[in-house]
Structures are given as C-alpha cells and as structure tokens.
Amino acid sequence: MSEIRLQGIQKRFGGNPILADINLTIAPGEFCVFIGPSGCGKSTLLRLIAGLDDASGGELHIDGRCVNDVPPAQRDVAMVFQSYALYPHMTVYDNMAFGLRHLKLGKDEIERRVRSAAESLHLTALLDRKPGALSGGQRQRVAIGRAIVRQPKVFLFDEPLSNLDASLRVKTRVEIARLHRQLGSASMVYVTHDQVEAMTLADKIVLLKPLAGQEGVPSIAQVGHPLDLYHHPKNRFVASFIGSPGMNFFPAEVSQASSSGLQCLAGTATLQAAVNASSQQAGAVVTVGIRPEHVQVGEGSLLGRITHLEHLGEHSYAYLETGLSPAPLVVKLAGSSAAIGDSLRFALPAASLHVFDAADEALPRLAASLAAA
Amino acid sequence: MLPKRLHAADLAYYLLLPLVLAFSLYPFAYAIASSFKQGSALFSSDFWPKVWSAANYVAVFAEQPFGQNLLNSVLVAGGVVLLSLTVSLLAAYALGRVQFRGRGVLMMTILGVSMFPQVAILSGLFELISWLGLYDSLWALVLSDLIFTLPFTVWVLVTFMRELPRELEEAALMDGAGVLTVIFRIFLPLLWPAVAATSLLAFIAAWNEFLFALTFTLSGEQRTVPVAIALISGASSYELPWGNIMAASVIVTVPLIVLVLIFQRQIVSGLTAGAVKG
C-alpha cells in the first residue's frame, strides 16, 4: 500500500531553517492534515512530498521507495493546488486528460477515467467548457477531478478550500471526506490553516510550529488524533493553537504537588488540577490553562464581572474580569441572556485544567480527567 | 462641473484628431494618389489624379523581378519571425522562470546587442557573412535581422512569461509534462497575445530593413523590396520614375496594414483569466 515515511527531513531557504527534523509516518489510507500558523512551513512540507521542492536533508519514502531524487510525475502523487492551476486554454475534459496522455494510456482508458471522475464530481455537463466559464466551486471540482483520474497513491491538497466562500467551503469539505472514504486505499495529505477543517477531516493532525529550526527543536509540535491534540496538548503552543476561541492561560504558584494532583495559587484563588505533578515542587511557577467551554458557569466560589460579550446565537462568549489574573477570562455561556456589567459565579473543575511547567511543557493529565472530558 | 469639463475634453479631441490624422495619413495618401498618375500628371499640382491609371503597377512588375522581391521579403521576414520566436520562447523560459547566477547580466547583454547602430556593426558583419558563404543569399538577411529582433522579442516574452502563475507550471510538472511541453503546450497558448504582438513588430522590422539588405545582396533576384524600390531606375539616369516607386511603395505597405488589422483582433489579452481563482 502507500505509506509515506519522512525521516529527519529538513528544509532551509538560504540560511534560514524552515523545517527541522521532521519524522513522520502517514499510514496507507490515512487522512493527514498539516496545520499551523502562517510561516510554519506546512505548504513547504507538502511541496517536498510532491517533489516540487527538494529537501535540504533527510529521506522521503513513498510506498517503501526512497523518492528524494524522483521527479514529481513519477512519485504516484497528485496535487490539488490552492489556486487550482487549471490550464485556462483547455476544456475541462482536456484539463483532466492532460496528465493521462503523458502516462501513455490508451484513448479509451483516458476517456473512461475522465468520464467516471466527471460523473462522481457532477462535472459531466461541463466537460466541454473552459475554466474561465466555470464558477469557483466548479473549478475546484475540476482540480480535484484532475487529481482523481491519475489514480495516485497519495493525494496532496494545498489549502483547497481557502478560495471558496463559507457555505461552499462546508459543502466541499463534506465532499472531500466522502471522496476519501470512496477512494479507500489512497492516503491524503491536506494543508490548511483552518482548524475546523483539520478537526473534521483528519485521522491525524500534524501541528507545525514556526521558527522551530531557529530554536533548535523539531518543527512538529505534536502529531495525533484531533481529539488527542484537543484534550492532551503536549505544550502550551499546541494548547493555544487548537480550539477556538483559544484556551485561557494564567500564571499560578504551586502550593502542593504530587503524582495525583496539584494545588496552586492563581491571583487570589486556590485551584486544584488533576494532573501528574510529581515533577513540580511547592513554590514553582506554572501556567494554568482552561478552555472557555470547560468553565462551569453559575456555580462555584469564584466571581467575575462581564466586561465584553460576543453573541453567537446559540451561545455567547463572555470576557470576565476576575481575581485570577489581569487578563480577561473567556467563558462560554449558553443562550444570550447575560449583559455587560453582570457578575457571574463560576468554577474551574480540576479535571478540565491544563497545567504547563516553566518550560511550557504540559504536565500529564490524569486518567480520571480523560473520562470527565 | 463634470459635463463642462467633458465638453472641453471633447473639443480638444475633435480639434487634435484631424491634425494627427492628416499628419500620419497624408504621406500615404500622397503615395497612393501619385501611384495612379501617369507622365506629366505626376508634376501637376492636383492632389488626386484626373485620369486614374494602373500603368505604374504593371510597370513595377514588368521592369524588374518585383514579384521575386516580394517573395524574398516574405521569406526573410517570415523566417526572422519564426526563428526569433522559437529562440526567444525558449530563452524567455530560461531567463524568466529559472533561477540561475548571472541572469541579470545576461539580460543586459542581450539588450546591449541591440544598442549598436546598424552602421557600426555593418563591416564586421559583412566579414562574418562572407566567411559563412552567405553573401548574396537570403539567409544572410535572416541571420543579420535576428540581431535586432531577438533582443526585443526576448525581453518582451520574458516579461510576460514571468507573470504566468507558478502553480500552472507546477501542475503541468505533476502531470508529467517536460520543459518543452510546458513551454509550447501550456505557456505558448497563454502567451498568444504577447506572441502575436511581438511577431508583428518583428515582421515589420524585418520587412522594412534596408541597410543589411542593401549590403549583403548583389543580384536583383535576391533583393528584398525596400532595396528593390530604392534601386528602381528610369529610362535614363536623369529620370526618377516616381510613379513606379510610389506604386511599389503602396504594394509593400498593404500587406503590413492587412497584418496589423488581422492581429489587432487577436491581440486581446485576458486569456489567462480563469487560470487562477476568479
């Protein structure tokens, strides 16, 4: 099958390390999403797999074969570009057939493959049109069709939805997920900066950190199942990147630490966290984090005053002024009945707290907290 | 406020229009009018001939191998266009889309070639032509005309080639296309407006070229039309056959006008619309 294995991949532009020490295996049939803030090199990593850029170091294996020196067309990969990159002077049919003609396939086989791809992407009526006469969503489907007809081992998507409007984006997202189930054995590597796309599509998320090379750490901040990254971020960077709105962070001083829990003082409040804190000692400074959706509002002993509200219909986000830290605490409220200036009672459940040590590495959350979350 | 200003602009437009038209069209109208005049009518003060006569046109072809000269011009100008486009398309890909050291210097050198006046390189070029054994052959003209068409076509095509989206080339690369396929199957159709414009200008330049054509050809059968026209002579050395010269000039200009009219419609850009997101 088509396993992709990256070993110690590096990429430098000029003297600047963009990607450092990438070790990653993408299993056959897996849907893998590269995500990260802009400048983290996620597109560059995709282009390395495609063969459009050369790695400065390390080895890339597709299907057990080292493809470092194999030209893009012979890697058995197909790419869907962000701008679609359709050939404007060719019809939709020719756009899809162009690559097949270079594969020296018979005319009938080309015809058959293009027709069946067009069928599944609802492009049959448009085969004689040129890209200029298509809408954005149709062009995007042609670009996907051009990849499908090659029947590659690996599909590469470079931010394929970023040029579509919001409603079409959701539709196409579902379409891509369906396509992945349909194609079964082919792996998909998908680059995006949109974490909703990443969370909904991925079997495996690869979160890349910008400028990692300059700090001398590997570019990959964390690899795992979407929920794994959500519940068990390895460090503060991952915790702050995954989830929207982002996690609340505030500094705290450890008062008691053991392998079964941690007690700390944040501002004026004493907090309990269900983490393995055996590495910490009383008096150490840590960062405590909690997601807005995990703050329990309406109970508990802590008090906050609403300074700002964001109504989203079904729920709202409130910015609370609290005694925990000078920065506002963002919490999720059901409905939209709250008003600015209201005082709210809230609790920070021990099972929902994340704790990061002085080096911003996460302390392991206890098994009990997994069940609670 | 706005209508008044428009009014002034309109006025200036209609005042200047006849001036510009008269200045650019008068010489040509004069040539057409003269070409249909016969004998002493050429020296009368009437602009249009009283009696229209096509005798000059017949004489042009009868008194010298003008048909052959026309064919020569077509061959030379056509050859120059074909060669300079092929070479400059390949060069434009290298210079416009491949990163390599010394690219800027190379571009400047190419431009520098076209800076020397023709007269300055004439004698040296003559040596080269005779050394290659091309003297009095049309190939001598094709070769030397490339000197001034190539820098221009290369520069124009490099500029256009640079602006084609990179992802288009990469998509073709992923599709297994080689460099030549990318250039001729993907880029050429997209560059069509630029190619049409540059070919037209290269064609006109080669068609009108005089100095090289005069120097590198000897026999009447190898002459191109500008030289042939300049060397049209009358019955005696004291007579200049204005009628024939004007008729020949009109004949030579008509193909250019036709070409411009044809290509004018082709030179519509916007073909790249749809290549990238819309």
Write a structural description:
The complex is a heterodimer of chains A (373) and B (278). Chain A is α+β, with helices and mostly antiparallel strands and 373 residues long. Chain A is built from 10 helices and 19 strands. Chain A has helices at 42-50, 92-102, 107-120, 136-148, 166-183, 195-201, 212-215, 226-231, 236-241, 367-372; strands at 4-13, 16-26, 31-35, 57-62, 65-66, 77-80, 154-158, 187-192, 204-208, 220-224, 248-258, 261-266, 269-273, 285-290, 296-311, 315-322, 329-334, 343-347, 354-356. Chain A has a 6-stranded mixed β-sheet, sandwiched between helices. A 5-stranded antiparallel β-sheet of chain A has the order 13-12-11-14-19. The mean pLDDT of chain A is 90. Chain B has a domain at 65-216: MetI-like (MetI-like fold, Orthogonal Bundle), CATH 1.10.3720. In chain B, α6 (138-163) runs antiparallel to α9 and α9 packs antiparallel against α12 (242-266). In chain B, 31% of the residues are buried. The model of chain B is unreliable at 269-278 (pLDDT under 50). Chain A binds chain B through residues 50, 52, 71-74, 77-79, 81-89, 98-99, 102-103, 130-134, 136, 139, 146, 163, and chain B through 165, 167-168, 170-177, 181, 186, 189-190, 271-278.
